[in-house]
Amino acid sequence: MICWIYCPDASIQVADGKVTGIDYDHCKGCGICSKECKFGAITMEAEKK
Ligand code: SF4
Questions:
Q1: Is the beta carbon of 4 within 6 A of some atom in ligand 1?
Q2: Distance (Å, rounded) from C-alpha 40 to C-alpha 48?
Q3: What residue's CA is closest to ligand 1, atom 8?
Q4: Is residue 42 part of a domain?
């Protein structure tokens, strides 16, 4: 849930106290969630066309 706290665009989707996904329509790709996650659960990748 650290990513959820730090995400500046509220793009981390949560249900029943668990992260369920990322809202890519609002995520700006800043990478804060990936940097702050001490478990390495989030990996940043370039968007595919
Ligand atoms: S990359 Fe930035 S905007 Fe996107 S989910 Fe992570 S913290 Fe939020």
A1: no
A2: 22
A3: 7
A4: no
